[in-house]
């Protein structure tokens, strides 16, 4: 049976219940309309099951009595972001919720558009420790007086490793694909192909501009346009955009079709550059085959200019909220990579490469979103894990090496700075407590 309309919602619920029964993982099915989540089949049911999620919703400042959708704006926006990413990619997308829990989502197309999406999870990818609790509390200060409840309720979530999460997401994607008609499935796979092709073309165009002196493209204007878009300056953005368009029109002597190619290049540059600073233009602009069809429908230069100006203005209006959601997701992915590799000599550059950001931008993002530097967070992860090894009776020299410090003296210095006592005294204290117990 194929999912064709809301009338098939009962069948959809049966399918996701089967996934839960076989995998042990919960799944929600959410209806989307005009880029807004309007209904979630199992929202109220899951809220009852997960006391932590219910606590977050109770503390939400949003006045919304609709039990069919999420009442926490941060959670809802992140869920929407995940679904748009999945639609863009044409496959599963794994992301972190605002409180560090891991979810995965896949799109369901009806009549060529994402009408529903399936959202799996949430789960934890790391065991609960003081650092995790601190991270969760920092995302919502209203949780601070309820720290004991937070610790207790987080125990509800299963700890699942990265490999299994990927498999769970892939199986959910296969399930979603089985629900779609052949035509909708073809569109999903075409989206995935276009996304891969667009990335390759954008990279080629960038290299061509850098190496071909005869092109003489106004790269400085592009940079100015990006900077004005980032601060939301519509008037100045429009002015610079018109200057770039004037250059393209005046230099292009191969016809209107080639002019449209140059316009596509320009938007590709905007996308690639903005992605580097945390925005996601492909989501906002809808740079899929629908977007290409719109460009191909334009027959006059003046209409092309109007259309492009609207795109830039739309980005200015939407980028802040989308950027904040994406930044949070990237930070959680960075933190996850650190937690899995802290025992190695990992650098800021290595972590930045893993999440697709520049080291400088990731560094500033860490300070902004986490409230501490990259090195401070890395040291805190190492110290937190070293405490488990100290409890097991390992020597300070061995512990320092096992958690990624080059020498014991520096490890002891960092430990004392964070824990306000030396690792030796801390270890002795643990032994005394065990003896008394």
Automatic annotation (TrEMBL):
Every HTH araC/xylS-type domain range: 332-429
Source taxon at top rank: Bacteria
PROSITE patterns, per the entry: HTH_ARAC_FAMILY_1 (PS00041), HTH_ARAC_FAMILY_2 (PS01124)
UniProt cross-references to PANTHER family, sorted A to Z: ARAC-FAMILY TRANSCRIPTIONAL REGULATOR
Organism: Halanaerobium hydrogeniformans (Halanaerobium sp. (strain sapolanicus))
Any one GO molecular-function label of the UniProt entry: DNA-binding transcription factor activity
Alphabetic keyword roster: DNA-binding, Transcription, Transcription regulation
Claim: Magnesium is one of the keywords in the record: no
Record's protein name: Transcriptional regulator, AraC family
């Amino acid at each position: 049976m194929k999912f064709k309309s809301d009338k098939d919602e009962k069948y959809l619920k049966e399918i996701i219940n089967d996934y839960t029964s076989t995998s042990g993982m919960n799944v929600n099915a959410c209806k989307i309309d005009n880029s807004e989540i309007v209904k979630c089949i199992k929202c109220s049911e899951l809220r009852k099951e997960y006391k932590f999620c219910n606590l977050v919703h109770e503390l939400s400042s949003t006045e919304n009595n609709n039990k069919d959708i999420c009442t926490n704006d941060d959670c809802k926006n992140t869920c929407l972001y995940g679904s748009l990413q999945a639609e863009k990619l044409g496959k599963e997308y794994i992301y972190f919720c605002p409180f560090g829990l891991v979810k995965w989502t896949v799109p369901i197309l009806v009549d060529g558009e994402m009408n529903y999406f399936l959202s799996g999870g949430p789960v934890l990818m790391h065991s609960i420790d003081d650092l995790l609790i601190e991270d969760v509390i920092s995302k919502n200060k209203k949780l601070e007086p309820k720290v004991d409840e937070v610790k207790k309720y987080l125990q509800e979530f299963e700890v699942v490793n990265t490999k299994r999460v990927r498999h769970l997401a892939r199986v959910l994607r296969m399930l979603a694909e089985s629900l779609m008609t052949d035509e909708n499935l073809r569109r999903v796979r075409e989206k995935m192909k276009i996304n891969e092709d667009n990335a390759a073309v954008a990279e080629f165009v960038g290299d061509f501009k850098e190496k071909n002196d005869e092109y003489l493209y106004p790269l400085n204007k592009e940079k100015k346009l990006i900077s004005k878009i980032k601060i939301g300056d519509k008037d100045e953005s429009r002015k610079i955009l018109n200057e770039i368009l004037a250059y393209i029109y005046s230099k292009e002597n191969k016809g209107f079709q080639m002019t449209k190619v140059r316009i596509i290049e320009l938007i590709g540059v905007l996308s690639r550059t903005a992605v580097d600073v945390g925005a996601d233009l492909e989501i906002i602009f809808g740079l899929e085959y629908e977007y290409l069809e719109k460009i191909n429908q334009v027959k006059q230069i003046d209409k092309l200019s109007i259309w492009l100006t609207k795109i830039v203005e739309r980005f200015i209006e939407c980028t802040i909220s989308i950027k904040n959601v994406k930044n949070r997701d990237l930070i959680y992915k960075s933190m996850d990579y650190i937690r899995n590799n802290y025992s190695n000599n990992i650098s800021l550059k290595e972590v930045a490469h893993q999440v697709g950001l520049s080291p400088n931008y990731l560094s500033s993002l860490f300070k902004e979103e986490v409230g501490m530097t990259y090195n401070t967070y890395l040291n805190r992860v190492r110290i937190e894990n070293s405490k488990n090894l100290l409890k097991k009776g390992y020597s300070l020299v061995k512990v320092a090496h096992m958690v990624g410090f080059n020498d014991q003296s520096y490890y002891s210095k960092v430990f004392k700075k964070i824990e306000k006592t030396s690792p030796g005294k801390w270890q002795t204290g643990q032994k005394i407590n065990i003896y008394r117990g």
